[in-house]
């Protein structure tokens, strides 16, 4: 079968739609991190401190982790599109509710914040597993690492743009007296909700669940997936039949363990970077929010490099992941030992170093590795369970890191993350060895077709 220009065009449209849609998820997720210094300033004398904010974040991560498992199974059974769009609109509603919840402080204290944020993150857990399910049906295996690296940039660039955009809203309120109302955490949430709903309405028209909906055939899944020939199909199967091969796969468990450590580290920086830069580097809340976007932006570059290199290495992800985590350990040790008080340039540079070594390998875990292991039959399930393992670790990124930073300082918190990175390195080395063995035994993967061949 010869590919048509229409199919090529729809592949680009699908990649762009998934990228834009998941970036929109992040504007309703990064908003809390950006608004945290403002929340602490308004409610600090009423009992809201870093420990309390950490509890809000950890409650959200807990529901996010639970939702990953449930929604991964639902995506593989019912398809990714309804979950992807439904989760986005539900997150918008939660963002509006959070903006209104300050009126409940006298009645519920920070409890309203905790409850609404937890529900928001539950709905947000639909986004990535649905994206992986859709991607498994649109793109050929020879381009999986590059495509998933590009789609991983949706949460990295989306996070960065969200911080710049919402930080800019705060800066307008800081610098323009007539716009002083924008220097308020409620404005951050209202702007986030309005922007995300516009993106969602556009996606309703253009996002298609599979090539079959535009009259084309789906490409083959990775022939080395653990389901074998069954992994080439999307038909629903009994839950036991879906989960048993995963439970018996050491390769899958090494991905989960690595995800546990790297997600804990990533979520720490996602949530706490503006507060760290505000307190330690002595930036204003608006400046700290804008400066924190360096973390996801550098990570986007790292993810793209890692994806392209991995496709060139034939899916040998461990050859990139292990050296990167070694660099991450060094970067965290520097961040934990160098005096950064009042030194914003040094603080930002070290955040960039952590991001570069962290987010390349992180981008593999619930993206291309899920496609490699689960094929079309279970890509959403693999992504959901491995991500749930990651966010199980990330629960510690909110409250535990908040306690360490509050009681012992930021240096101690970052050294603790260095120890976590060492544990992740051990799991990554085990993955490297197992994956190399799998690739040596797998069926040969044909090269990407030329323009006059089938995709």
Explain what you see:
α2 runs antiparallel to α9 and α3 packs parallel to α6. The protein has one domain: MFS general substrate transporter like domains (Growth Hormone, Chain: A). It has 455 residues and is an all-alpha fold. Helices cover 77% and strands 0% of the residues. The protein is built from 17 helices and no strands.
What is the percentage of strand-forming residues? under 5%
Based on Cα principal axes, name the global outline. globular
Classified in CATH, the superfamily is MFS general substrate transporter like domains
Note poorly predicted spans.
443-455
CATH second-level architecture: Up-down Bundle
Number of domains: 1
Number of strands: 0
Main sheet makeup: none
Query: What pattern of helices and strands is seen along the backbone?
Result: HHHHHHHHHHHHHHHHH
- Helix/strand class: mainly alpha
Determine and state the CATH class: Mainly Alpha
- At CATH level 3, the topology is Growth Hormone, Chain: A
The number of helical runs is 17
Span between N and C termini? 9 Å
How is the topology of this model organized?
Elements: H1 5-27, H2 30-43, H3 50-78, H4 80-100, H5 105-108, H6 111-124, H7 126-138, H8 144-175, H9 185-206, H10 239-247, H11 250-279, H12 285-291, H13 294-312, H14 318-337, H15 344-365, H16 368-408, H17 410-441
